[in-house]
Amino acid sequence: MDVAKYKQLATDIADLYGEGYTNPYSLRVEPYEPAEFQMGLTLALAMYFVAMFPKELQTVLDMHQQSLLHTVEELEAKQHRDDVLDVSGFKL
Questions:
Q1: What is the signed CA dihedral for 13, 44, 55, 87, rounded to 10 degrees?
Q2: Based on the number of CB atoms within 10 Å of its own CB, is 9 exposed (0-12), middle (13-18) or buried (19 or more)?
Q3: Residue 86 CA to chain centroid, in angstroms?
Q4: HSE toward the beta carbon, residue 8, CA cutoff 13 A
Q5: Pick from 40, 35, 48, 65: which is nearest to 9 by CA?
Q6: In the chain, is it the N or the C terminus that has fewer CB atoms within a 10 Å radius of its CB?
Q7: 10 Å Cβ neighbour count for 31?
């Protein structure tokens, strides 16, 4: 894995979302909406973690999967219609 390449990609993504986008109607640079901005930063952070901590990342993903499955089991045990989640085919 080319660590420098992933780190540069993470930096480029963060820069891209930090600078905003050109509105096609006004041709002005405008900031991204908060949800779009958050998604961009999350993607940049994911690229950075893939480069810097590939083995640790898999361990963290396994822990999150166990936590999610435990949460779903608790919700399904309550048998409330509003609390039941269908995660068939869900895999992290």
A1: -120
A2: middle
A3: 21
A4: 4
A5: 48
A6: N
A7: 12
Is this structure's pTM higher than 0.85?
no
CB 44 within 8 A of CB 10: yes
Place of tokens 């085919």: 89
Judge contact between 83 and 75, C-beta under 8 A.
Answer: yes
Cα–Cα distance for residue pair 6/8, rounded to 1 Å: 5
Contact between residue 21 and residue 30 where contact means Cβ atoms under 8 Å apart: yes
Q: What is d(CA 85, CA 92) in angstroms, rounded to the nearest whole number?
A: 16
Q: What is the pLDDT of residues 7-63, one digit of tens each?
A: 888 888 888 888 888 888 888 888 888 888 888 888 888 888 888 887 887 887 788
Strands (E), 14-57: 21-22, 29-30
